[in-house]
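Notes from the pairing session

We agreed to fold both candidates in a single pass and log them together. This is the raw record for the first candidate, unedited. Please don't reformat it; downstream parsing expects exactly this layout.

Candidate A
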Amino acid sequence: MATPFQRLQAIDALRGLVMLIMMVDHVRETFYLHHQVPDPMLIPGTDEPLFFSRMIAHLCAPVFVLLTGLSAYLYQHKHNSIQMTREFLIKRGLFLVFLELIVINFAWTAQFPPDVVYLQVIWAIGFSMIALSAVIGLPKKWLWLLSLVIIFGHNLLDTVSFADIPMMHQLWLILHERGWIEFGEVIRFRTSYPVLPWIGVIILGYCIGTSVFGDSTSVRKRNRTLLTFGMVSIALFVVLRLANIYGDQAWLMMPTLSETFMSFMNLTKYPPSLLFILWNVGIGLVLLVMLQKIETKSWIKPLVVIGSVPMFFYIVHLYVLKLLYVFAVQQFGMTHGEYFGVNDVSTLWFIAIALSILLYPLMRAFAKFKHGNKHITILKYL
């Protein structure tokens, strides 16, 4: 029978893996802005290394939100209290929203007070945690239904607009449509991560926890069920994508096989389409099973360490990237129009790997401090 610690190892390892992948994408958003890509990407003119680097990074947000829901169930299971779990979700959700608005937004814009606030992934996770807190008391079957209705049905809302109803329009921008919420000339909010689909994903993670991580579930049975969920999700993606009818923009036959494959895998992240969620959640669950099988290996420990302090890693790496960019501009000036940037994608990977190695000792020290001072409440949120 699996212990909670054993479960946490694989979950933290997966969280650590996606944090490192995220590092590559954030290096891209720092040192490759002269080759910025839209969402979804434009296949003609987008180099393959850039496309596939961005495609791999798509794994990060869905897996992190899914694991947040799964971890919420494990917290509830550990404390045997829905009320304690609800309170924890609300407190941490509000804390994450605060971090997004103040700490993280400053890392991107270097403006305080800001005139633009970007509501990105940490905001979406925090908002989703608060939403999850409101529904965790529902029967399991209703939670499954709610999650699947949101995930499979939200693309039906893509053509809905409330542009002529200001109050509804602002709410809709938060829930489902990427856009700008403006308060005169004082401040603007960019809803980069509309939250409705992410609420579906976090509830899905919680539901998977209730179905798979019970006391009576053996490691073998749990892994078999997780693998089944993952493969079914991937299979649904393939079937629906081949049908080319619903779940994302249509893919096209392109001049080359490589470009056709890129078109097939060119999925919408903002907000995440049905097919985006199916593919990335499926891959994430398969990776979780694979990591479960090797979680006791010593070489997997760095992933576990980073995954145990995800918010600390997230904040630190953003500020390090900002400082590196400022330093690079001072030393070399603007090398690509209005930006300093590197010349190829391989350099982005090199920078990301180097920074990950350099930051690891700090992550390990903080993880040791965090786990040795569990009485400090704020550390639970980092």
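Candidate B (folded immediately after A)
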Amino acid sequence: MFVRNKTQFSPVLSRGSLSDEVDVGAIVVELRLRVVGERLEPMLGSVERVATDPPDTTKIPMWRGTSVTAAGEVFGPSRPPFLRPVTLSVGREIRRIVAFGNRRWEQSVLGDLTATDPAPFDSLPLSFERAFGGSFVLPPGLLPGTDLPHPGGKVQYYLNERGIGFYADEAAAIGGLLPNFELADQLVTRWGDRPVPGCFVPCPELVGLRLRHVHVDLPLANPVDATKSAFQARFASRAFFMVQHHAPGYLVFDALPPGTAIHLQGLGTDAIRFEVPACPARVTLRRGQSRTEVSARVRSVHVDAARQFISCVYGYEFRYNESTAPSWITIES
């Protein structure tokens, strides 16, 4: 098959196989737009990629759902309490994190651990390194809280090894830092809390943070083997597609149609509001004398609050076999 691109975009053709008889292809288009007020304007020229950008997904032919992410800095308030809420609204769904100045665990006169008040801060860049998580080295001996022997070694928080706030015991937590970013509905109140790490930046390496959000309706009690097999297949399918995403699981949506309102508050100097744009590209498959238009799905939306632009990735997927493969794929504005 050949691709004829008549647009200013740089579309990518990706192909794969579902089985010996069925193949899948996709034209993937990335659209970058500058945020001007509540309007979106085309960006001219190339944009330098930075560490907080989403990974390249143009080589993936099959995709389900939409990752929504945001990057930027949280600016600190001028007076206490030194914390700031950050809200990301996607349609009717709302996700909130709270950004705190540095806090530490200290021992009270009663002997228990309490968190200090947040310290003043100028700005905090969003990062999972400042969300809950971390690791520690466990010496050989008994597994904490049990009578089971343990050979020792590195123990990491399974949802975010890079974070802070994960301690082996109460003694190790004394003087230790709490996370700067927390989900508003899972705030840390005790040193032994194990919350879901809260942040909005892309995190392709944190696979566990997405897999824990894979939900499949449970079969009825005492299901037959066929029902069990169907359930397992459905779970495996959802897990496969969820792993491909780069947003934390709480920011992966089943679908995000164009026109969906997105509102980001608390990141950067000003609130950002826009509607997810439709991709201004038309993809047509030609098989002999017949032509078929392929519709787009929104794969991801990323908001860069510091540089005031958004990135949207669209996938135009199609299936075919040896006898129905398109000879030409035309991309037009």
